[in-house]
Amino acid sequence: MTRSILFDTETTGLDPKTGDRVIEVAALELINDLPTGAHFHCLIHPERDIPAEATRVHGFTLEHLQGKPLFRAIAAEMMAFMGEDEMLVAHNAPFDFSFLNWELQLCGLPALGPHRMVDTLALAKARFPGMPNSLDALCRRFAIDLSARTTHNALLDCKLLAEVYIELTGGRQRGLSLAVSETGDAIAQYEAVAERRPRPILVSPEEAARHAAFLAQLKDPIWLKDAASAG
After folding, report:
1. The domain containing residue 63 runs over which residues?
2. Phi, psi at 119, each rounded to 5°
3. Active-site residue set
């Protein structure tokens, strides 16, 4: 059994070194890359203003965060949930790592080691080179419901990213287990998983054009050979 943590942050801006701060942290527990339902979530007072351009992204104003704890008050609980050795999964992970490590430094706490980082944006770029790989784009590609995502929200983004991560790392079959359940019916468990239909990968005309442009830059790509032979 492998435990890892998928997490996301919302912030007042793009760079902690210029004074931007974390205003929301959410994290989900994964066992063998599948979410268990255990999670950590906290809104945080940033001890500064929130620029209007940041509010347009995540929807939070300073008034929403009045009375919320400071980061130093939630740091120990967050770190306990993340554990000491677990891999930490995030979309554009260097961004989230930089903010959390800056906040941890301000608290006098150890940083999150870069060896723990799993970046789903890098995974997506490797799988879909030359195509849009934002969280929204990946959700559309894997037919994941985006109807609740009107603004960025760390907890909702974590839940969406968990579904994306399952697809990027091999789909639901990674969670297939023939271990006997408490009811002793391993065959029923297998059939329940086997009945799940794979999600189609939906490619928009714009994405197809970007992919074709990427292939045009390659020398004698095998994908075009396969397409020609199939025709």
Report:
1. 3-169
2. -105, 110
3. 152
